[in-house]
Design brief:
Layout: E1 3-8, H1 17-35, E2 39-44, H2 49-59, E3 63-67, H3 80-87, H4 97-104, H5 106-115, E4 123-124, E5 137-143, E6 159-161, H6 163-174, E7 180-184, E8 188-198, E9 201-204, E10 208-212, H7 225-229, H8 234-238, E11 239-243, H9 250-266, E12 272-280, E13 285-292, H10 301-309, H11 313-322
Parallel strand pairs: 1-2, 1-3
Antiparallel strand pairs: 4-7, 5-6, 5-7, 8-9, 8-10, 8-12, 10-11, 12-13
Helix pairs in contact: 1-11
Length: about 325
């Protein structure tokens, strides 16, 4: 039997829901790989790189499923796992290290988008000298390296103010050694669009729209931490996924698909990915971020989009495995 090794992030004591989710992802891949005839071993990616090399030498896997999202709890190190696997010349699923590094650094990925004519919300990271004039505009604060909901509190209002106000907020956030940046808040619709590799070119899966139901006018419509992970919260219960009607909104789906494919090519994506959008009230599309190796589990948005497309769990795993060759 061919052997598959599933590497995932090392979990600390009492991990929060967003970190525990990696075990659900590992289960998803393990089930699919077992049906495909693989002997599956699941292990934490050790903080000691030499130890990981020894594990691979002993296990001698035919392929590795890379589900490593942090090392020592730090998202800034997410690219080290695929880089190490590349160094060892081991076949692995998902995006290569360069694509993961570039897309995980939201500031860098935004600059690359701008160079290639992909529209992204205005942003700035320098609290002492903001390069973007946010005066009178709405903005939110986001982590540069961690997932987009990290540190994003839905009870924290979307701010309208001067550059001095924003600089003060950024300085307060960054005082805790967690790099944040200011991004213009785009009022309008939000879309999450998954892609999966299929031989000659990737498939853009059905466009999922995030619906903010029962939100008061004054409440910012953002997918923060509670909306993703706190099942008891108002945000979780009232932030729902709905697929866009591809017949009624054919042009919108076409435009989104074109941008997704452009992102796939520019950033050198592989296996699977997701692109998050906002569309303003005038119909202009903005890419918020690109997610290399997004969450895939039984209840994930990716799985929902794949099901909407008619792809089974086995087909999803098979396509991703095939693209790792």
């Amino acid at each position: 039997m061919p052997k598959a090794l599933i590497f995932h992030s090392k979990l600390g004591p009492n991990p929060p829901p967003d970190e525990l989710d990696v075990l659900e992802q590992a289960r998803y891949f393990a089930e699919g790989l077992s049906v495909l005839g693989y002997q599956v071993q699941q292990l934490e990616f050790d903080n000691n790189l030499d130890q990981n090399a020894e594990i691979i030498t002993n296990a001698r896997p035919d392929m590795v499923v890379n589900l490593v999202e942090t090392i020592k709890g730090d998202g800034r190190l997410i690219h080290l796992a695929p880089a190490w696997l590349e160094h060892l010349n081991v076949r692995f699923t998902g995006c290569p290290s360069e694509a993961i590094y570039v897309t995980s650094n939201k500031l860098l990925s935004k600059k690359i988008m701008q160079l290639h004519g992909i529209q992204t919300p205005a942003f700035s990271s320098d609290a002492s000298k903001l390069k973007t004039d946010f005066t009178g505009r709405q903005f939110i604060l986001k982590s540069v390296w961690e997932h987009a909901s990290f540190g994003m509190d839905e009870h924290d209002p979307v701010f309208i103010g001067s550059n001095e106000v924003i600089a003060g907020r950024l300085a307060a956030k960054n005082a805790h050694d967690q790099l944040f940046f200011a991004e213009e808040y785009i009022e309008g619709r939000e879309f999450n669009v998954s892609m999966i590799a299929c031989e000659s070119e990737p498939i853009v899966l059905p466009v999922a729209e995030i619906k903010f139901n029962n939100y008061p006018d004054a409440k910012p419509k953002i997918v923060g931490y509670r909306a993703k992970w706190d099942e008891t919260s108002f945000e979780f219960k009232n932030t729902n996924r709905q697929f866009v009607d591809e017949v009624k909104e054919k042009d919108l789906c076409r435009r989104i698909g074109q941008i997704c494919l452009k992102c796939w090519t520019i950033f050198g994506l592989r296996g699977y990915a997701r692109v998050d959008f906002r569309m303003d009230l005038n119909g202009s599309l903005y890419v918020l971020e690109i997610n290399a190796n997004p969450c895939i589990s039984a209840d994930s948005g990716f799985e929902a989009a794949a099901t909407q497309k008619g792809l089974s769990q086995l087909e999803v795993v098979k396509l991703i495995v095939n693209d790792s060759i």
